UniProtKB/TrEMBL annotation:
Designated gene of the protein: INTS9
Organism: Coemansia aciculifera
Cellular component, GO, one term: integrator complex
Location(s) in or outside the cell: Nucleus
Keywords in alphabetical order: Nucleus
Name the record gives this protein: Integrator complex subunit 9
GO-annotated biological processes: snRNA 3'-end processing
Superkingdom, taxonomy of origin: Eukaryota
Length: 677
């Protein structure tokens, strides 16, 4: 019986790094790690740059050193947020297997890694009092990190790769499309379905020996944003489900959020941010939006551009301060097939899904790599809409301080002439509450902040709702924080629930049991009654376990007690270990081996009646060899592609199969025969 073991190596609930072992196959799902522990460039209350924490528990190399990377067969990546440690793994460990991700996840992931590394270099410049370049750092050897002891060296030791490593890691990623089946190793197949979180974000399914395990990474039910919508089939097809991600219960309101509610909540918060921005620009003010140049920022930017033009307001100058912003906005128009349905429909019209192309043609969209580069750009003064990433605290501090001084110096005459800028707004939408709250605390002294976190990720209510479509699930694994919320209601589910936590291995045996509904119809009951036999309508399910097919009855159904003497050839015995059921006498005399074989042949199954010893070897000979005192009986021999099966109809029906594929074929055939009679 196959089993799967899951160990979480990331200390943060938002990022995943799962080591999974499926029998002899070992693989990694996601390579996420908290960015602030690698690229820590936060300043303290005095504005002085802090060094990264030296706590060894935050150093990913300490955790990853416990993994035997030579045994890891492949890596699956779900979205651009979960790639933080990929360059280190591919370049500085013994891992040599394939890496799989969608094309957009790969493209955006490279931007995230390069932007993070650039932030680290800016931080080192501030600490060193000088300047450095990405090119110079790309030649630093990995071994030199371990020899650094203090100051700048200790801070840089938190960045375990270089720009050259990022490029090399990206070249090792194999692009995949949703629903494209890949076989990374023999007997294992993997494929993805959309998670709805970002462009190209995916939930992976790993299939092994007819067992499908779904890994639900960062996902959302919201369909009002630009990425392709959530695909629920990832749950309905899986026997085992691993929820990798969920919002921290302490960081969201405790209310039930379904698909409609998720859309309403996301739209309400985005509209609140847009309303503040439009109101500011109506008063000839300026806006600073703190957010990464991808994800929700693209939706907010799009809505503000549309509302500005629809209200006939002066079109502001949109300025993105980021070394990767130009690429990330272009990807939205290039990768149209990964967008939501409404955006995909625009691909067939003479217009782009996003507004950046039109704004660039009007010279109202500008990209600068850093604050220093802004001085070299000839951007018209007036209404500015500036987008800066959360980690670029130097840029954020500059605009907040400078705009406040401009507002204080603005005279009434300048306001009347339209040249004064007395109002400005700072908007934050990041759903990383800890990081956003740190920014709010820094800026609240110098400016007014509108902090509206746009949270899209699954809550435990969403997980509970999604489990309703997990019709084939037998095992569900989830983070400890979510398990604590759902454990009380675990009894209402047919599957078993498990929890996993940081550095704690959770192993689940993937049961070979399969179930199909069974209903012996009233017509069959009437036929049995006409023969004078005792009978009753039977409703239950066929259970396939260890090569045996058994009829199980729902809990609470009336059971007829029978003594051992009542057990006869016309009785069905339930031996399901989870719900003990007494022997139930059922008259099945209407079913003879010849009739069952004929019925199976009519539906295309190669079935024949043979003579043999129960639980022994069947033979086609009319004079079988007796073994001890066992009496030969008639059996049904079934031969199908991939194996064979023997049906015993004496002393209780049972089926012995030679392979898993044969089990499914015989099980489905019996269901069809019993349903039609």
């Amino acid at each position: 019986m196959p089993s799967i073991s899951v160990v979480s190596f990331s200390p943060h609930e938002r990022f995943h790094l799962l080591l999974c072992e499926l029998d002899d196959t070992m693989f990694i799902v996601d390579c996420g790690w908290p960015l602030n522990t690698l690229y820590s460039d936060q300043a303290d209350d005095t504005g002085k740059l802090r060094t990264a924490k030296s706590d060894t528990r935050l150093d990913p190399r300490d955790a990853l050193s416990t993994i035997n990377w030579a045994r890891v067969d492949f890596i699956l990546l779900s979205n651009y947020e979960q790639m933080t440690l990929l360059p280190y793994i591919t370049e500085y460990t013994e891992f040599s297997g394939p890496v799989y991700a969608t094309e957009p996840a790969k493209a955006y992931g490279r931007c995230v890694l390069e932007e993070g590394l650039g932030a680290a270099l800016q931080g080192s410049d501030a600490m060193q009092g000088g300047s450095s370049s990405m090119a110079s750092t790309s030649n630093v050897s990995h071994s030199s990190w371990s020899r650094r002891a203090n100051g700048l060296d200790k801070w840089q030791a938190q960045v375990p790769y270089t720009q050259r490593d990022i490029v090399a890691a990206m070249e090792k990623i194999t692009d995949v499309r949703h629903n494209e089946i890949i076989s990374p190793v023999p007997f294992v197949q993997v494929y993805t379905r959309s998670s709805g979180y970002s462009i190209g974000s995916a939930n992976w399914t790993v299939e092994y020996k007819n067992h499908r395990t779904a890994f639900i990474s960062t996902s959302t039910f919201a369909t009002c944003l630009h990425p392709q919508e959530w695909d629920p089939k990832v749950l309905s097809d899986a026997q085992a489900i691993v929820f990798c991600d969920a919002v921290d219960p302490a960081s969201y309101e405790d209310d039930e959020v379904g698909t409609a509610r998720a859309n309403a909540q996301v739209l309400q918060r985005i509209n609140q941010l847009c309303s503040t921005a439009i109101s500011t620009m109506k008063q000839r003010g300026r806006v600073l939006l703190i957010g990464e140049p991808y994800g929700v920022t693209q939706d907010i930017f799009q809505l503000i551009a549309e509302h500005t033009q629809s209200l006939n307001l002066p079109l502001p100058q949109f300025i993105f301060i980021s070394p990767v912003a130009e690429r990330t906005l272009q990807y939205g128009n290039i990768m149209g097939e990964w967008l939501c349905e409404s955006k995909q429909a625009l691909l067939y019209l003479p217009e782009y899904p996003f507004a950046d192309k039109d704004l660039r043609q009007k010279n109202h969209l500008h990209f600068v790599r850093s604050l220093a580069d802004l001085a070299t750009k000839n951007i018209p003064q007036g209404n500015w809409f500036v987008v800066a990433p959360p980690h670029d605290t130097a840029t954020i501090d500059y605009f907040a301080r400078q705009w406040k001084q401009d507002a204080q110096r603005c005279s009434s005459a300048e306001m009347a002439s339209g040249t004064g800028m007395a109002k400005f707004a700072v908007l934050i939408h990041d759903d990383d509450v800890a990081r956003s709250q740190s920014l709010v605390n820094r800026l609240s002294v110098s400016s007014e902040i509108t902090f509206v976190p746009v949270s899209r990720r699954f809550t435990y209510h969403n997980i509970e709702q999604s489990l309703a479509s997990a019709t084939h699930a037998q095992h569900v694994l989830m983070p400890s924080s979510v398990y604590a919320r759902l454990a009380a209601s675990a009894s209402k589910y047919e599957f078993k629930m498990f929890e996993f936590s940081h550095l704690q291995a959770t192993t689940v045996d993937l049961s070979a049991d399969r179930h199909l509904p069974l209903n012996i119809q009233k017509e069959m009951t009437r036929q049995i009654k006409s023969s004078g036999k005792q009978c009753a309508v039977v409703t239950g399910r066929l259970s396939l376990a260890a090569g045996k097919i058994r009829l199980e009855y729902p809990e609470g159904q009336a059971q007829v007690q029978a003594s051992a003497a009542d057990t006869s050839a016309n009785s069905i015995k339930n031996t399901h270990s989870a719900v003990p059921v007494s022997t139930l006498p059922r008259d099945l005399s209407v079913w003879t081996p010849e009739r069952l074989a004929d019925e199976l042949n009519e539906i295309g199954i190669n079935a024949s009646v043979v003579v043999g010893i129960p639980n022994g070897t069947a033979a086609a000979s009319s004079e079988p060899q007796l073994q001890g005192t066992d009496r030969p009986v008639k059996l049904i021999k079934i031969v199908v592609p991939g194996g064979s099966a023997t049906i015993h109809m004496h002393g209780g029906w049972s089926v012995e199969c030679t392979s898993v594929s044969t089990q499914w074929t015989v099980m489905d055939s019996l269901r069809r025969v019993l349903k039609c009679t």
